[in-house]
């Protein structure tokens, strides 16, 4: 019986040590050896991103899509986010995007999105996963569509270079539907963006 009790205690102790090591994966130690978390409730950051954007369902072929209704375009984004816990953040992003069209015109869109982020960390690496919903102003020639629905999903990897700055790459999916009284004019724009990002933490 004593041997069984000793084995059980050993197993529980081993599990506790393993769990403690796993839970400390997102901890960072400063030069004095003091443990610090990368993010805590109340921390904030500003996200800046430049993107190359691919129109997924307008015809044409990857990567330039020149023979489709829309060809490859670009976008820029600015966002503000605040951590509710060390893992979850909420915020808002505004961006501007454009795509040349088959007729050498320009399709532009300005989405404003509110979002929620879950961000696991491992040492100085951060892995944000974000979903968002919002509205957009879309313009082509002299036609403006507003407000348009926007749905977004985003995942990335960042390296916290300093306490104030992190840099990384992300992949973004955007859904921009347009609905009209006559269903034949409806469109369902799907766009994928590759982002180069910088974040200022404060």
Largest sheet: 8 strands, antiparallel, barrel
Give the overall average pLDDT: 85
Helical residues, percent? 10-25%
Element string (H = helix, E = strand) = HEEEEEEEEEEEE
What do these coordinates show?
Helices cover 11% and strands 58% of the residues. It has 202 residues and is mostly beta strands. Strands 3-4-5-6-9-10-11-12 form an eight-stranded antiparallel beta barrel. The protein has a two-stranded antiparallel sheet with strand order 1-2. Strand 9 (129-140) and strand 10 form a beta hairpin. The longest helix has 22 residues, at 2-23. It is elongated. Residues 1-26 and 29-35 have low confidence and may be disordered.
List keywords for this structure.
disordered N terminus; 12 strands; 202 residues; mainly beta
In short:
This protein has 202 residues and is mostly beta strands.
How does the SSE layout of this entry go?
Blueprint: H1 2-23, E1 27-29, E2 35-37, E3 44-55, E4 73-83, E5 88-100, E6 106-118, E7 121-122, E8 125-126, E9 129-140, E10 143-160, E11 165-178, E12 187-201
Antiparallel strand pairs: 1-2, 3-4, 3-12, 4-5, 5-6, 6-9, 7-8, 8-10, 9-10, 10-11, 11-12
